[in-house]
C-alpha cells in the first residue's frame, strides 16, 4: 500500500520561511512525479509545484520566485521550501503522486501579518 505523508507545516509570521516534506512509502515508482497543491478555506485546490525524478520543476504563478521544490530520491522524499511567506499562502498543503494518483493527508500552513 502506498502512502504519502506530509510534515513541516506550522504557524509563522509574514516574511518567514517553512520547509514542507512529503515522504512516499510503498512503491518507489510513485515518487517519479510529485506535485504540491494547497487549499485555502472556501477556495478551490490550487496547483503549487511539480517535480519529476530528474529534479525538473514547475511552479504556479503565485509562488514562482518564492517556493522551491527539491527531492532526495534515496529517501523517497520531496521538499517544498517556502520563503517570503505571505498571509495569502495560508492553506492546507497536500502532496500528490501523479503516477499513482494518491494524495497525502495535508499539512496546515498559517501565515499571519
Describe the protein in words.
This protein is an all-beta fold and 113 residues long. Helix content is 0%, strand content 54%. The protein has no helices and eleven strands. It has strands spanning 3-7, 10-13, 18-25, 33-39, 46-52, 57-59, 67-72, 77-82, 91-97, 102-103, 107-112. The strands form two sheets. Strands 2, 4, 5, 6, 9, 10 and 11 form a seven-stranded mixed β-sheet that branches. Strands 1-3-8-7 form a four-stranded antiparallel β-sheet, with no helix packed on it. A hairpin with a 4-residue loop joins strand 9 and strand 10. The protein is globular. The mean pLDDT is 96.
Strand content: over 45%
* Helix share bin: under 10%
Uncertain residue segments: none
Biggest sheet statistics: 7 strands, mixed
Using the CA coordinates, give the radius of gyration: 13 Å
Could you report the average pLDDT, rounded to the nearest whole number? Answer: 96
Label the structural class. mainly beta
Please write the string of helix (H) and strand (E) elements. EEEEEEEEEEE
Amino acid at each position: 500500500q502506498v502512502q504519502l505523508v506530509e510534515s513541516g507545516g506550522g504557524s509563522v509570521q509574514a516574511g518567514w520561511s517553512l520547509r514542507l516534506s512529503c515522504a512516499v512509502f510503498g512503491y518507489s515508482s510513485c515518487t517519479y512525479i510529485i506535485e504540491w497543491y494547497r487549499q485555502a478555506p472556501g477556495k478551490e485546490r490550487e496547483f503549487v509545484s511539480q517535480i519529476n525524478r530528474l529534479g525538473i520543476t514547475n511552479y504556479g504563478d503565485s509562488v514562482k520566485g518564492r517556493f522551491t521544490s527539491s527531492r532526495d530520491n534515496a529517501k523517497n522524499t520531496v521538499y517544498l521550501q517556502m520563503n517570503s511567506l505571505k498571509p495569502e499562502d495560508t492553506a492546507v498543503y497536500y502532496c500528490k503522486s501523479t503516477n499513482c494518483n494518491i494524495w497525502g493527508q495535508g499539512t496546515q500552513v498559517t501565515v499571519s501579518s
